[in-house]
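Quick start: what a row looks like.
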Amino acid sequence: MRRRQKIAITAAVAAIACCAATRAEAAAYYPPPALTWSHGQMNGGARYGSDNLNLGFGARGGYTLPNGIYFGGLFDYFIGESQSETLGGTTVSASAHLWDIGAEGGFDFALMDKLMIRPFLGIGVAVATGDICMDQIGGPMCVHASNNDSFIEFGGLLNYLSGSLMFGGDARVLAASGTSVVIGGHIGWLF
């Protein structure tokens, strides 16, 4: 072999080794993959919201890309509150409920082999509905009202994975015309 060819081959091998070492060093700083990476997910469960949202239920679903970035959506329905009062023989009752639908994005981190956490942000629409009814001669008279507003949310989700089943909970701040704290528990699966 000629001297130039030996130098070229040596330089190419050194460049490949240098790139491999740089790539391995960069991979050492990247978080280890969570079990949810490259999987779709669905979960549902009970919720509780502050500021008179009270008990509710909800569902969440999405997909985590191979690099850990999560995209998905959610739906919640909160029972809200109902009140009734009798004044001078006339009963007045009022009830209010809220539901929301939105999109979320986050990143799935592995805390342990079967435990992961996802900080997330979301946007969507929240719809509040209410009814006020008053007894009167000839039957009750009711007035229905609804209002919708966009919302943003931020929070975190924790999942314990057992095979393809997930058990966990989440906590988030939901900000629309008012701000509520929502906590919930869920069960779901990976697919």
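That is the whole record. Strands lie at 39-49, 54-64, 69-87, 90-107, 109-112, 115-134, 141-162, 165-175, 179-190. Helices lie at 3-29.
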